[in-house]
Amino acid sequence: MNDNAACPSCAEELEKDVRSECGKLGPIEKVRIFKHNQEGAVTVRFKAIEPAQQCVALMNGRWAGKVGRWVGGWVATRTGGGAGSLG
Question: Which CATH number is correct for 3-70, 3.90.480.20, 3.40.50.150, 3.40.140.10, 3.30.70.330?
Fold first, then answer.
């Protein structure tokens, strides 16, 4: 079991941190913490594609010291919308 599944408040803190950091780039529709994912996956859905692209540039390859992992990011779009994700 990963740390987020064992510590619900840790997942809440992570969501708050991600929302705070990524929200500087533009309006966010949704932050999702995959609590049972062993890799510690998180997605961020922005209201526009530009902040999603900026988020990837900012976060991809970044060291997440609190969890001791490197961050990987990419933009995923959905048909008919400009949403982006950081995973």
Answer: 3.30.70.330
